[in-house]
Amino acid sequence: MEYSELRKTMTKKEIALAFSNGEFDKTVEYIADEAVWEVVEENTFVGKDAIIENCNQVAAYFKSVTIDFKTLNIIAQDHKVVINGTAEFSRNGQRVSFVSACDLYEFNENGQIQRITSYCIQAPQA
Questions:
Q1: Across the beta sheet with 94-107, what order do the strands follow?
Q2: How far apart are CA 88 and CA 70, in angstroms?
Q3: Residue 55, class by beta-carbon neighbours within 10 Å (0-12 exposed, 13-18 middle, 19+ buried)?
């Protein structure tokens, strides 16, 4: 058996943390087909395909900046994981934006993300 076949199953906490930190490629297989991602007061993505499409757009932006993610808290209970933290985005040594965020993940019985509710507060520009 090759190493690639020995794929480790991620825990709900690991899945949520990877998604919150923009490591979307690690989480694709853990998103339910009918999942919903609501970014409160901004947008709602319905279905795995819509979520992946948005992840691809976010990932493209992430490649254009330097990101400093800081995870402040992770709370996990049963089928829910909550992560809050901050992200500082910079380009050429200059801050582009700073976001305080909280993501609530709800998993189904199969360990897949069923719903994500994201609260993102962007700091005013200096």
A1: 43-46, 31-39, 113-122, 94-107, 80-91, 66-77
A2: 9
A3: buried
Q: Side chain identity at 8, as an amino acid letter?
A: K
pTM: 0.89
Rounded to an integer, what distance in angstroms lies between the CA atom of residue 105 and that of residue 116? Answer: 5
Domain layout of the chain by residue ranges: 9-122
* Structural domain 9-122, CATH architecture: Roll (3.10)
Q: What is the pLDDT of residues 67-99, one digit of tens each?
A: 999 999 999 999 999 999 999 999 999 999 999
Strand partners, 97: 89
Paired sense of beta strands 94-107 and 80-91, if any: antiparallel
Beta bridge partners of 117: 38, 104
- Which residues share a beta bridge with 115? 36, 106
**Which residues of the chain fall below pLDDT 70?**
1-8, 126
